[in-house]
């Protein structure tokens, strides 16, 4: 079993990278939402995913991300695509959601409904308690709950102002959190107005 390799990324196309290590080149899938530097020597944690029909390598920046990914895809109904979507939240935040049994926050993640969230919690709660203490988890949840409330208020406000769903999604993906609702709305409007795809 490969745990990690030390080398460098020489090419990236979305979720696919070519990773050179010890004079060998490997085709590896990574989370496309993470930032990956080209031609910089670094350690890459590897997970080998084998099925009856295929074999694929997945790469991660940290060991804990690798562990959580492996745990997630071991659950029936969760494949690499959903696991990566969950990991976009950050392993520590996901661990906190699981430890605190917060189905509502888990269910906000794309491709995760209440049933899947409940299964994740039931399966991984004890293991996640070994990776994050409950007090830290509670603090994480408080921060995330406040942040989610701000997002919900911003989304509602933009809908009232007449913005389309894809414009709202773009704004939520491209503005910094924090500040008053009025400041968030202002940032969102600026982001939408400056986006090339929304210009007439």
Automatic annotation (TrEMBL):
Its main location: cytoplasm. GO terms for biological process: DNA recombination; DNA repair. Belongs to the RuvA family. The lineage of its organism: Bacteria, Bacillati, Mycoplasmatota, Mycoplasmoidales, Metamycoplasmataceae. It is found in: Cytoplasm. Keywords: Cytoplasm, DNA damage, DNA recombination, DNA repair, DNA-binding. It comes from Mycoplasmopsis agassizii. Residues 154-192 form the Holliday junction DNA helicase RuvA C-terminal domain. GO terms for cellular component: cytoplasm; Holliday junction helicase complex; Holliday junction resolvase complex. Gene3D superfamilies: 5' to 3' exonuclease, C-terminal subdomain. One of its GO terms (molecular function) is four-way junction DNA binding. NCBIfam families: ruvA. Coiled coil: none annotated. The RuvA-RuvB-RuvC complex processes Holliday junction (HJ) DNA during genetic recombination and DNA repair, while the RuvA-RuvB complex plays an important role in the rescue of blocked DNA replication forks via replication fork reversal (RFR). RuvA specifically binds to HJ cruciform DNA, conferring on it an open structure. The RuvB hexamer acts as an ATP-dependent pump, pulling dsDNA into and through the RuvAB complex. HJ branch migration allows RuvC to scan DNA until it finds its consensus sequence, where it cleaves and resolves the cruciform DNA. Has three domains with a flexible linker between the domains II and III and assumes an 'L' shape. Domain III is highly mobile and contacts RuvB. Residues 146-200 are annotated as: Domain III. InterPro entries: RuvA, RuvA_2-like, RuvA_C. This is Holliday junction branch migration complex subunit RuvA. Pfam families: HHH_5, RuvA_C. It comes from the Bacteria. Homotetramer. Forms an RuvA(8)-RuvB(12)-Holliday junction (HJ) complex. HJ DNA is sandwiched between 2 RuvA tetramers; dsDNA enters through RuvA and exits via RuvB. An RuvB hexamer assembles on each DNA strand where it exits the tetramer. Each RuvB hexamer is contacted by two RuvA subunits (via domain III) on 2 adjacent RuvB subunits; this complex drives branch migration. In the full resolvosome a probable DNA-RuvA(4)-RuvB(12)-RuvC(2) complex forms which resolves the HJ.
